[in-house]
Amino acid sequence: MNMFIKFLRLVAVSAVLSISTAAFSANIDVSADGNDVAIKGYDPVAYFTESKALKGNQAFTATYKNAIYQFSSAGNRDAFKADPEKYAPQYGGYCAFGVAMGKKFETDPNAWKVVDNKLYLNLDKSVQKRWLEDVPGYINTADTNWSTIKTVEADKL
Q1: In angstroms, rounded to a whole number, what is the distance separating the alpha carbons of residues 32 and 67?
Q2: Which of 23, 38, 95, 125: CA 20 to 30 A from 133?
Q3: Cα–Cα dist 113/122, whole Å
Q4: Which residues partner with 55 through β-bridges?
Q5: Per the database entry, which stretches of residues form a coiled coil (predicted)?
Q6: Per-residue pLDDT tens for 129-153?
Q7: Phi–psi pair at 108, nearest 5 degrees
Q8: Contact between 117 and 86 (Cβ < 8 Å)
Q9: Verdict on whether the full-model pTM lies above 0.85
């Protein structure tokens, strides 16, 4: 009986460790600040509906892939909640050019572009200028790289 109880405890500890590791790993594939806020608090829906980078409001939030997104209105929040894959930035909000290079870099919410109804962010305007030289090629390379690097911590790349 004593051996059985030890076995059950070991199984329980293993389960807790697996859950903790899974929760930690889930945040690796999304760029968010220390408070889990994505896109530095900018509204991901506004890029599509307003064609501009628009700061969100803490009163309107939604969580997706363990990151908190902020919105400029309840309507934008509701649209995001209805279809987060449509509005969330590609590559978890990491720099599209960086992902094409096999790296994860933070982004400037003002260095953005919607391509084929998908939101892409870049490190800054100068990096975006380079990315714009071959958008289809960089997206193709980044799509391939993302499957390999999305679960790797940025500082390990």
Answers
A1: 6
A2: 38
A3: 9
A4: 42
A5: none
A6: 999 999 999 999 999 999 999 999 9
A7: -100, 120
A8: yes
A9: no
